[in-house]
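Hypothesis: this fold can be encoded by more than one sequence.
Test: take the structure tokens below, design a sequence, compare later.
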């Protein structure tokens, strides 16, 4: 059948000619496909921002703070416009401590009201223009 010299010769021919030919064919055929898959993977990774990025976290916190500030400014402007219009019913005050109109100077302490007799007319309603100097 096969002599040992024939088997060794066949192995040498395969090692010298066929294996490198298959390697070059595989390299030139598979390399473009592998590179395109790597490019697709990189582009998908760039689209997704990492959640542990400290710069992204800081920007998100800054945007949330600016949104809260904008909401407070809008509420204040609406409240001011309502006061200037002189409507009867008051809109709800903005939520949170220290937000809203201040009708007493901070160092003045609590307002002292003199006792009122039942026959006396009710005190006049304050106008927003009386307190403009405190808002500036």
């Amino acid at each position: 059948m096969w002599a040992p010299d024939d088997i060794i010769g066949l192995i040498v021919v395969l090692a010298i000619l066929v294996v490198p030919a298959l390697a070059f064919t595989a390299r030139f055929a598979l390399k473009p496909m592998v590179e395109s898959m790597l490019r697709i993977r990189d582009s998908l990774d760039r689209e997704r921002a990492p959640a542990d990025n400290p710069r992204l976290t800081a920007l998100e916190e800054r945007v949330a703070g600016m949104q809260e500030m904008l909401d407070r400014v809008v509420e204040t402007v609406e409240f001011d416009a309502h006061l200037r219009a002189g409507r009867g019913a008051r809109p709800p005050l903005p939520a949170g401590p220290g937000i809203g109109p201040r009708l007493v100077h901070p160092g003045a302490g609590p307002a002292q009201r003199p006792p009122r007799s039942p026959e006396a007319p009710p005190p006049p309603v304050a106008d927003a223009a009386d307190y403009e100097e405190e808002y500036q």
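The mean pLDDT is 75. The first helix runs from residue 4 to 47.
Hypothesis status: open.
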